[in-house]
């Protein structure tokens, strides 16, 4: 089903008028509901629905109540049959709509022609303008992605080069304390001697001193300094010309005053892009705060013996591009004329400012950031305190700060015994059905779910008989699903040639159609499950990626460093009963966090997912904050969590107590069993064990840090957190 419209949208667009209710009186059952749904969809969208997947579920329920038919009856209404086509023809006669003709197309094109070119009747130019507009947005997105990837490539190559150099030079010198003592004694014994005659013999040779110097250099500070030097050199000698060309073709904007220094810095470096001087002019106002990081200040600023401090031009440009990439990735800076990198304000509803209070109320979120943060911090403290009292009583948990594998140790559970009747059940199944061929299973699924009818053609007409078409689509699904290929399947004894199979494969196997077919299978599976056999349905899914090898000539083939080979990456969302509710092709360098959230938002099945299990790659601070706002739980399986330091909310202040009380008066508070707990590696790893980071920064950053994890107190994740709290304190 499509995305729900909400109460207001359903009432406005899917309420039958008096005349419209009379049009459905001579119909009954699924036909009556399908006729009414098509009627209201036509008046809403100006066209008929192609499949059930486009219909909002709340709208179908609203129409079903008006016509007196159960909403589940819509499953038996086929939008591709002759009866459905006859209904659409009847609706056109009743409503006055008609199919688009050439005359209508001329009228449609004439209106923008008059607006753009006034009286010049050049329809082809309007269509060309629309094509160029779309193509311009695609090219702009590509240029922005090229800029981001170039800056990332400079940084990655600098890190690799410095790492290789440090590893080549590094040799650990043991016994440095005794070595220092021998050098000191030898120096005091012969203070007038040379280093070669006194120090080197005491140290064990000149090579030992060189190894000691190399080891002293191989610190975090020295490594970072060398990496910055290589980055500056790579940018100045090779990448600068290309990045400046990209800067000319892109128009960057920001709606946040906090990031205006980056916009001003971009204008500054663009004015002096052709300059050959080492420093920026003295008369220019050079933004430094928010543009140049502290660790880059020593490279960007030069203080001569006499005169004012000067700004190194090429170093400053490198800092600006790094800051620009960071702001672009979080959409604090956007690009004019782009689609993916467009102004984030355009993603809001048109009436957001007018109906802001209503939207916040529907989301059950306070409008004040302080109230939101105070409530989260209160829930975090409750979620950490409640398991803290129960954890020591659990016999299968051991907490010890001296264990090499981490502070938390779990006792492995004993394997469950095989049910007594399982072997008998398997034997009875084999005796009754034997070994069922995969093609028969696929055929039964197609007959029971109607999944093949969800594959809509690319064109508008079809001359192939429906029975033959379904057979060919079934064979095509078997060919691709088993990776046998159409050529191998066409060699079977079924009467369909290879060309007859390839023709519908090109016309029917589209991304939209395949997704709709998958939704049909999932929904039919959910409806057919019996609680007595399969148990109560779950509301959680698990998501992860799978790497499939592919040929080099495939345009989607990419090299993946983690899997160590070429192929494509598919990201799945699987519910507990092994049913896939969503799948998507993922770029090998893309974030799995975005893919996990996107799958939860865009799956079109009937499942009401409330939790998502992911691995370490599927979670981040931003992911925890977004899933909290979206209203479902992110349940990560974090690698080596027993060694991770976790975020703890600061104790409440008088102001936060007032915020918590006001939030509690507005809506009921969550119970400790459903409280949230938070994790922030950035804040915790930089602090010592037992310290508590504060949230005194801006409300947006505090909300993101405070809402980093949402999970149940009784889950394994909460037990981990409570254990870590005890071991840290």
Give an overview in words.
By secondary structure, the protein is of the alpha+beta class. Strands 7, 8, 9, 10, 11 and 12 form a six-stranded mixed beta sheet that branches. It has a two-stranded antiparallel ribbon with strand order 1-4. The protein is globular, with a radius of gyration of 33 Å. 25% of the residues are buried.
Roughly how many Å is the radius of gyration? 33 Å
The residue-averaged pLDDT reads 78
Coarse structural class? alpha+beta
Determine the N-to-C terminus distance.
Answer: 50 Å
Low-confidence stretches: 663-729
β-strand percent reads 5-15%
Overall geometry comes to globular
Count of helical segments?
29
How would you sum up the major sheet?
6 strands, mixed
Helical content class: 40-55%
Based on DSSP secondary structure assignment, what is the total number of beta strands?
12
Could you list some keywords that capture this structure?
single chain; 729 residues; alpha+beta; six-stranded mixed β-sheet; two-stranded antiparallel ribbon; 29 helices; 8% strand
Question: Can you summarize this structure?
Answer:
The chain has 729 residues and is α+β, with helices and mostly antiparallel strands. It is built from 29 helices and 12 strands.
What is the fold's blueprint, element by element?
Blueprint: H1 6-13, H2 18-23, H3 29-45, H4 57-67, H5 82-95, H6 102-117, H7 123-169, H8 176-189, H9 195-203, H10 206-217, H11 220-249, E1 252-253, H12 260-271, H13 297-300, E2 301-302, E3 310-311, H14 313-329, E4 334-335, H15 356-363, H16 369-390, E5 397-399, E6 408-410, H17 422-433, H18 438-449, H19 466-481, H20 486-490, H21 498-508, H22 511-528, H23 531-534, E7 540-549, E8 558-560, E9 565-575, E10 580-586, H24 592-602, E11 611-615, H25 621-630, E12 633-637, H26 654-666, H27 681-685, H28 699-706, H29 716-728
Parallel strand pairs: 7-11, 11-12
Antiparallel strand pairs: 1-4, 2-3, 5-6, 7-9, 8-9, 9-10
């Amino acid at each position: 089903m499509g995305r729900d419209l909400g109460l207001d949208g359903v009432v406005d667009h899917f309420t039958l008028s008096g005349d419209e209710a009379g049009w459905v009186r001579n119909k009954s059952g699924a036909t009556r509901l399908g006729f009414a749904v098509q009627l209201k969809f036509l008046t809403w969208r100006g066209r008929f629905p192609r499949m059930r997947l486009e219909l909002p579920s709340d709208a179908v329920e609203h129409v079903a109540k008006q016509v007196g038919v159960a909403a589940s009856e819509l499953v038996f209404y086929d939008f591709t049959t002759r009866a459905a086509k006859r209904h659409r023809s009847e609706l056109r006669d009743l409503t006055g709509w008609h199919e688009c003709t050439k005359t209508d197309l001329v009228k449609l094109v004439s209106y923008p022609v008059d607006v753009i070119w006034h009286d010049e009747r050049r329809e082809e130019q309007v269509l060309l303008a629309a094509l160029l507009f779309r193509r311009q947005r695609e090219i702009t997105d590509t240029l922005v992605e090229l800029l981001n990837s170039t800056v990332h490539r400079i940084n990655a190559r600098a890190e690799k080069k410095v790492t290789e150099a440090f590893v080549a030079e590094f040799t650990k010198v043991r016994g440095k304390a005794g070595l220092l003592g021998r050098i000191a004694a030898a120096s005091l014994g012969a203070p007038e001697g040379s280093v070669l005659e006194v120090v080197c013999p005491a140290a064990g040779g000149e090579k030992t001193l060189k190894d000691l110097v190399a080891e002293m250099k191989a610190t975090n500070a020295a490594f970072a300094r060398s990496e910055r030097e290589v980055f500056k050199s790579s940018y100045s000698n090779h990448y600068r010309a290309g990045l400046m060309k990209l800067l000319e073709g892109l128009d960057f904007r920001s709606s946040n005053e906090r990031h205006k220094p980056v916009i001003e810095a971009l204008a500054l470096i663009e004015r002096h892009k052709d300059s050959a001087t080492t420093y920026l002019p003295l008369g220019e106002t050079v933004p430094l705060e928010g543009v140049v990081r502290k660790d880059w200040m020593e490279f960007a600023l030069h203080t001569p013996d006499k005169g004012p401090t000067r700004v190194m031009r090429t170093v400053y440009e490198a800092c600006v591009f790094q800051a620009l990439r960071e702001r672009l990735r979080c959409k604090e800076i956007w690009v004019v004329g782009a689609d993916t990198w467009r102004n984030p304000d355009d993603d809001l509803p048109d009436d957001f400012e007018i109906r802001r209070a209503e939207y916040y109320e529907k989301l059950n979120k306070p409008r004040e950031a302080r109230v939101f943060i105070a409530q989260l911090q209160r829930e975090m403290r409750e979620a950490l305190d409640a398991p803290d009292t129960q954890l020591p009583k659990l016999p299968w948990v051991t907490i010890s700060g001296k264990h090499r594998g981490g502070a938390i140790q779990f006792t492995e559970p004993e394997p469950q015994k095989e049910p007594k009747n399982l072997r008998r059940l398997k034997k009875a199944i084999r005796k009754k059905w034997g070994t069922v061929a995969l093609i028969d299973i696929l055929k039964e699924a197609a007959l029971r779910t109607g999944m093949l009818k969800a594959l809509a053609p690319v064109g508008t007409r079809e001359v192939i008989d429906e029975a033959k078409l379904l057979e060919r689509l079934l064979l095509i699904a078997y060919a691709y699903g088993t990776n046998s290929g159409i050529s191998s399947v066409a060699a079977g004894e079924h009467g369909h040639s290879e060309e007859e199979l390839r023709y519908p494969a090109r016309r029917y196997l589209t991304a939209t159609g395949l997704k709709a077919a998958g939704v049909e299978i999932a929904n039919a599976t959910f409806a057919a499950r019996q609680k007595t056999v399969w148990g109560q349905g779950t509301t959680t899914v698990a998501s992860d990626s799978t790497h499939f090898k592919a040929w080099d000539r495939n345009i989607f083939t990419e090299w993946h460093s983690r899997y160590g080979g070429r192929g494509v990456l598919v990201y799945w969302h699987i519910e507990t009963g092994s049913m896939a509710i969503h799948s998507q092709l993922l770029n090998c360098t893309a974030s799995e966090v975005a893919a996990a959230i996107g799958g939860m938002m865009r799956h079109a099945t009937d499942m009401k997912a409330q939790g998502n299990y992911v691995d370490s790659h599927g979670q981040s601070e931003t992911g925890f904050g977004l899933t909290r706002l979206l209203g479902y739980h992110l349940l990560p399986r974090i690698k080596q969590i027993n060694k991770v330091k976790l975020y703890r909310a600061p104790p409440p202040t008088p102001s936060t107590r007032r915020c918590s009380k006001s939030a509690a008066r507005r809506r009921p508070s969550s119970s400790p069993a459903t409280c949230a707990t938070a994790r922030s590696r950035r804040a915790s790893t930089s602090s010592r064990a037992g310290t508590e980071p504060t949230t005194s920064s801006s409300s947006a950053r505090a909300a993101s840090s405070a809402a980093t994890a949402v999970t149940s107190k009784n889950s394994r994740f909460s037990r981990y957190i409570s254990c870590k709290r005890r071991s840290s304190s």
